[in-house]
Amino acid sequence: MIEDNAIKAPKSPFAMRENEIKVFDGKDGYSSIDRVVERIDKGIITELHFKIVEIINTFGFITSRQIYQILKINGDEELKSQDKLNKKLEDLIKTKVITRYYFESSEGKGIYRIYCLDKNGKYLLQSRDIKTEWQITDNTKPVYMIKKRLAGNQAIIAYMQKVGAYRGYVVNCNLFAKRQNTKFSASGGQVVLVKNDIKVDLIFEVVRL
Length: 209
Prior knowledge:
Number of strands: 9
Oligomer: single chain
Strand content: 25-35%
Order of helices and strands: EHHEHHEEHHEEEEE
Distance between the termini: 28 Å
Structural class: alpha+beta
Shape: globular
Largest sheet: 4 strands, antiparallel
CATH architecture: Orthogonal Bundle
CATH topology: Arc Repressor Mutant, subunit A
CATH class: Mainly Alpha
CATH superfamily: Winged helix-like DNA-binding domain superfamily/Winged helix DNA-binding domain
Strand order of the largest sheet: 1-3-4-2
Helix content: 25-40%
């Protein structure tokens, strides 16, 4: 996989483009949870697939490159290449555990795919008592909201890779404005840093131009 610092692009892949739309690139039709269970029993869907689904659940929307980066940061030795990850993702799409989109604009088709949960993914997570707030309408979010999430993901990954004081992250960071009595979320998320026993929480907002 090409490292981030070797990628030279005049414009961020997560920047907004004129007349940009989200295009469905998943599986049409119906796939029952029974089929998923059968594939688990046969060893086709493995623990690595579950790790991938958990990452997608945590971030909501995420690219395959970002999934691969997080798995490698977490020390996963089973996955040897981006291509092998893509095959695992395809397994999950075929059984409607996850689904996939891409962006298209007047500049052409986007170069990356975006992954999010599908209905059978929620059932799998619940079977393991893993908290998920996903609902089918989440997948109708517009392009600008999804790109904010993708850019926030990349910021979190940069801290994971490059900052020695990094200790953790919160994707959906909820804040409360006392005077306005209003609850809101920072679109970028929260990163936790610890150095010399001093903890610092960095909360950031993503602005897409």
